[in-house]
Design brief:
By secondary structure, the protein is of the alpha/beta class. The chain folds into 2 domains: about 150 residues, P-loop containing nucleotide triphosphate hydrolases (Rossmann fold), CATH 3.40.50.300; about 60 residues, no CATH class. It is built from 7 helices and 10 strands. Strands 6-7-8-3-9-10 form a 6-stranded mixed β-sheet, sandwiched between helices. The protein has a 4-stranded antiparallel β-sheet with strand order 2-1-4-5, covered by helices on one side. The two termini are about 25 Å apart.
Length: about 220
């Protein structure tokens, strides 16, 4: 699903944020990504969800060498990736239902085809009674559940999550990860960046650790 071979990333003339990274993640896997603040976790995720291009090396997603994809092929690949941001990025003037349905609408689907799926998903994430609410009226946990629903509504093969529990309380954080865990059991590949030790100690998924521009498989006792 994800393959990085000798990948480096730097911004303009700055130092390497990532240096000679080799990373191979199988389809259907679930990995936590940890590391100190400023280590480059968000930059690595942006490479994977195709928001950045590597300065050196080869990035392959879903078997496609990103450097060889046409603009159309790149667009099709992006549609198979769900992204969950720490700051939610919900659109203020759209309701919960409209925010979650937006990726399907952008893809050209008619509402008659997706309305039932959107409503069922909102019920599943506990927002069935909030479909008409605007983001400003939602709690942090509700916003994050809406963001997760929007990321998964297209049934992506890959979900990339950047500190998805950073704005919710610990109990809600565990609940949100359980939702992603259920999606993973259905075959979706998950890569989730977090600094919250409570999360990766509650779940048996392997953990990648990013520090000093390098990524390696973390040992269970390794501190953040």
């Amino acid at each position: 699903m994800i393959r990085l071979d000798h990948v480096s990333l730097r911004y303009e003339d700055g130092p390497d944020v990532l240096s000679d990274v080799n990373l191979h993640l199988a389809e259907g896997s679930f990995h936590f990504l940890t590391g100190p603040s400023g280590a480059g976790k968000t930059s690595l995720l942006k490479l994977i969800f195709l928001a950045h291009r590597a300065s050196a090396g080869r990035v392959s997603i879903m078997g496609h060498d990103i450097a060889t994809l046409s603009r159309h092929q790149m667009s099709l690949t992006r549609r198979q990736i769900g992204v969950i941001f720490q700051d939610f990025r919900l659109i203020d003037h759209l309701s919960v239902y409209e925010n979650v349905a937006l990726p399907l609408k952008i893809a050209g689907q008619r509402e008659g085809r997706y309305q039932k799926d959107v409503l069922e998903l909102l019920q599943w994430v506990g927002l069935g009674q909030r479909i008409d609410a605007l983001p400003a009226t939602l709690s942090g946990g509700e916003k994050q559940r809406a963001a997760i629903a929007r990321a998964v509504i297209t049934r992506p093969r890959l979900i990339v999550a950047d500190e998805p529990t950073g704005n919710v309380d610990p109990e809600m954080g565990l609940r949100l990860i359980r939702l992603l865990d259920e999606l993973n059991k259905m075959g979706t590949t998950i890569l989730l960046a977090t600094h919250d030790q409570q999360l990766w100690t509650h779940f048996a998924h392997p953990r990648l650790h990013l520090e000093a521009a390098q990524v390696h498989m973390a040992k269970p006792q390794e501190a953040l």
